[in-house]
Amino acid sequence: MVDPIQMFPRPLRQLLGPLGTSATGMSRQQEFMEVISNNIANANTTKGPDGKPYQREIAVAGIDPRTGAPTTTVVHDTSPDRLVLEPGNPDADANGYVHYPNVDLANEQVDLMIASRMHEANATAFEAGKAMLHKALDI
Amino acid sequence: MVPSLFGAGTLTNDLRGALDELSATHHTIADDVANATSRSASTGFAGQLQSSMTKTDENLTRDMASLADTETRYEAAAKLLQKSYADLRAAITGNG
Fold this sequence. Notes:
The complex is a heterodimer of chains A (139) and B (96). Chain A contains 2 helices and 4 strands. Chain A has 139 residues and is α+β, with helices and mostly antiparallel strands. In chain A, strand 1 (57-63) and strand 2 form a beta hairpin. Chain A is elongated, with a radius of gyration of 21 Å. In chain A, helix 1 (10-41) packs antiparallel against helix 2. Chain B is mostly helical. Chain B has 3 helices and no strands. In chain B, helix 2 packs antiparallel against helix 3 (46-93). Chain B is rod-shaped and about 70 Å long.
């Protein structure tokens, strides 16, 4: 993802820089929310495309060392599956246990709230930058 | 004469400097807020993550307070600069 503000001339970049930073922060939180929503949607997926239970995903924010652009990488949580004794379930193993994804709905809800609040914080910083820009234009 | 109106040590020059400084402060805060969380998951290694979350929360509270402070200071500096330019204009044109 290339920051479009980086393409502007320097004086404009200085003026709009903080807005770009907050916008990047907002889109990052949105990506986090997408990954968390995906975890919630697949909390009971016992058979994925590979025939194995869904594995919880975690979005990790980073910076591309070459371009300096912000990146979001999705990694898998390798903690063990949730085992539930359901002998009648067609997905049960030889011992009668069904391997459910390692997704804890309560944790995902908390993470979703954090991402949502962080998005709001970025939006507030964006609004403040916009108000300051307006004041500067009024001089 | 002109440097004594706009040059170093004058009110307009000081206020312009204040605007630049506050703008830079705002950029730093926006950067801090944008990078406050580096991953979508808050759980995994209970103790370690809980302490890191508390730290993030503290930082965020401080950042949001600084943000409001910076915005207000910027508004005040911009208003004062606007007023000083209006005064200068009045002095130049003679129309108070």
